[in-house]
Amino acid sequence: LAPVKEEEGMVGLFLNLVELSGGVTEEIAEPGHLILYTLDLLLGGDACGSDHSICTIVCSKILCSRSCLFLNNKIGYIWTIDMDQKLIRLLREELVSGDFVPNHAWQFIVETFIDQYEVNATICQLQSRLIFYKSIYVISKDLLENGGFQWDKGTNQVVGNDISWNAYVEFNPLVLSLKGRSLPFLNDIIELFNYDALLREAILEENAMFLAVGEMLMSSIMDEEEEDTTPIPRPMHTSRHTGHVWVHEILHDHERRCYNTFRMHPSMFLKLRDILVERELIRESRNVTTSEQLAMFLYAMGHGVATGAMCEHFQHSSETISYYVNCVIKAISLLRFTYIVLPSGTDPVHPRIRHDDHFYPYFKDAIGAINGTYIPAHVLKDKQARYRNRKNVISQNVMGVCGFDLIFHYVGVGFEGAAADMTVLRRAIDVDGFKVPQGKYYLVDSGYGNAAQFLAPYHGERYHLLEYQNRGNAAYRNMRDKYNHRHAQLRNCVERCFGVLKNRFQTLREGNCYPFRVQVLIVLACCVVHNFIRREHGEDYYFNLRHLDNIEDDDDPPEDPNLVVTPPDMQVGENFRTQIATQIWKLTYYMVMLKEQSLTQVYIDVQWGDKN
């Protein structure tokens, strides 16, 4: 037995015994058990009382060899360090994906190895290799944390003096497996076994060869009459009515069901999914289809529900749902450069103005309206003061720039709730590159300063639409009063735009508990979906809601206009506004005079700047 106690002798004896017994099979056949048990007894190991039995040492020594010979159906192949690195990284990617299912994951990894390396690998062999790296993880972590050893980045080895090595070898012979061994992927090993304790257990317990051997040895010394009271975990989300089935049913049933569930027409759902797939922004996994991924996002945003509440619908864990919701949020946010774009300035006059005598030609160069809205937010306690708005609500101030067709031209997200609208506009111009096309302007409320590019109402006069209800032209007090009414009628498009957005996505009304950076992306992603539907589908259920026509905003108190416009710009804006108000008021005067003269038909062509 003397030669057998040498390392190579142990390995050689073990391999010979395995070969004679027919190989270590996936089912861990009884001869394989007998070999390990016999070898342990021959070498003086104590499987019953030692944490590091000779049996375990031999198995690990075999597995740690860089050119380890695995026998599968009596056909050998060489195991390389490249295979080690591939195995560790595949497992790490499976865990990080948030969709780890042991049986499916191992089957996928085995198929990858067979395709890439042309070896007849089995699940048991790969799991056995992983068990060795679990010991590498434990040992290397212990060595580096307890002193006497350090990590050499040049050689990718754990290094130490002979005294330190000998001291640890007496305590744990497996330490020798690290001496002089290069581990270029140690970070992947550490990340793999640090990621999630429950998933680590799932990896190591799922049909692992040597764990099964250890279980057999331990069970042989247990009292046969002792009852095992360990609770057996019950699997969840095992319904045959899977998320894929549920989503398919919603999409192919009555379209109203799709509106109620996913907040859009089925055709728009499928088109948005196809765009995300074609641009490779989302991809299908083995267990979650791209339709499910998009459905998770739309259901969470549309109903404002937490991921845990969605588990029954989709039959996935909350971790899986959270992962894919985040993926789709980021994916849709990347479409903002396609669906949220500033106008060029060469577009013709919008039909909303061109075909209405109340607005044309006075507002012919207006291209939309600007306003801010509050979206509930969850932030850290030390940041809440900055995000508390004047209504004492923690929120982010979102600036919307909207056209008369209810399409967002620009969305400024992530601003503190305590920030005033003028401050947000200033930051959008200076930091985010927001620009108004030359010769055009947006309508703004009284919280902004008046300028040639930002046309505001007059202070001190009526402004909100409700104040003008059931009043005819005779009720106008003066020129400024009538100008404010026309201005409010046009600028109401931005309030309708926010109204449609918040009615479609309940999470924007109630808030959510995602990290704040994700909350910011959620607002942006919802605006992208809003524009996508408006551009691709036109009118839908939410755009046709009539009660949104007279939504009133809650204006911020006026702030120093110098934050955005200079005094010269303010003077130009004042002259421009006066010119428009005068033209509107003069037309009213002419209409009254013509009516008094009893003219039955009048054609009026008011030219811009006409003084007659």
From TrEMBL:
Residues 377-531 form the DDE Tnp4 domain. Residues 238-332 form the DUF8040 domain. Its cofactor is a divalent metal cation. It holds the Pfam family Myb_DNA-bind_3. It comes from the Eukaryota. Residues 79-168 form the Myb/SANT-like domain. Belongs to the HARBI1 family. This is DDE Tnp4 domain-containing protein. The lineage of its organism: Eukaryota, Viridiplantae, Streptophyta, Embryophyta, Tracheophyta.
